[in-house]
């Protein structure tokens, strides 16, 4: 084998790799474009009664969690206010108002 043959084979293998990577990219793009989108409501077409009950309970739990966070912020605000306004003996009565 001569040096020219070595250079030729190295160049052809790099061209093959480039061509192969281009083919892979084109195939991935074709897969992405061939995915059919479905409407949001069709996601629930396979849900049975158990799934619907669990989704309902999860929604109620999420609403309850959000309400509790608001309640904690209000209570914590009252506690912080009572530290600045009252003596330590009156803190419990000020927070309980």
Automatic annotation (TrEMBL):
Q: Which residue spans traverse the membrane?
A: 53-76
Biased composition regions of type Polar residues, renumbered to the chain:
1-11
Q: Which UniProt keywords apply?
A: Membrane, Transmembrane, Transmembrane helix
- As given in the record, the signal peptide range reads none
InterPro entries per record: ABC1_TM_sf
Which SUPFAM superfamilies does this one have?
A: ABC transporter transmembrane region
Quote the cellular component terms of the Gene Ontology held in the record: membrane
This protein is called Abc transporter b family member 11
């Amino acid at each position: 084998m001569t040096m020219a043959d070595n250079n030729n084979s190295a160049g052809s293998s790099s061209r093959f790799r480039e061509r192969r990577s281009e083919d892979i990219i084109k195939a991935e793009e074709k897969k992405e474009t061939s995915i059919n989108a479905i409407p949001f409501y069709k996601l629930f077409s396979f849900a049975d009664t158990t799934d619907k009950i669990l989704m309902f309970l999860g929604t109620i739990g999420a609403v309850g969690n959000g309400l509790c966070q608001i309640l904690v912020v209000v209570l914590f605000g009252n506690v912080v206010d009572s530290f600045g306004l009252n003596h330590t003996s009156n803190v419990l009565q000020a927070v309980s108002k």
